[in-house]
Amino acid sequence: MRFIKKKTNKSVEVEVWEDEREFEKVEVYESTFTMDNVEQPLRFVKFAMKHKDKRRSQVMIVTTCMEMTLKSLFKIIRSRWDIENSIFNNLKNECGLEHCFVHGGKAVEAVLYLIFIASNILQLFRLRRLKKHIKSQREMVRLLLKGLYQLKYQAELVLSSA
């Protein structure tokens, strides 16, 4: 990996994108290589991004997919980064997942599924039912309880998209 990284860093960029969403400039470097015990050739792609506030960052990926365009790879990796930052960070900070109090693969998996489901239901509730921004978590919980109370007596709200 070190060798291919050095080789790619010394190469000329394959593509350069100007004014790409929140970036001033994105330079893309690409090369292919093989590894022991891996049947397919691997594709190493480095995205060097210059943000509009002059900060710089880079993302490097290794994939076996040779046909996908560089723009598609960039969109996928940015989406995965958003998932990492928003969902997992939210689970860790707001759902008390810093330490899992159960042991064993199946128990941990069950707890994670429950937390994912609860988080998704809460986000869906925020998106579908709340028209204005919530001032506090207490207000959000009050509205969630109100919605659950209404669901008890108005079953047609369950499948309503309004």
From TrEMBL:
One GO term (biological process): DNA transposition
Database matches in InterPro entries: RNaseH-like_sf, Transposase_11
Signal peptide limits: none
Domain Transposase IS4-like, residue spans: 26-121
GO MF, one example: transposase activity
UniProt name for this protein: Transposase IS4-like domain-containing protein
Species the sequence originates in: Desulfosporosinus acididurans
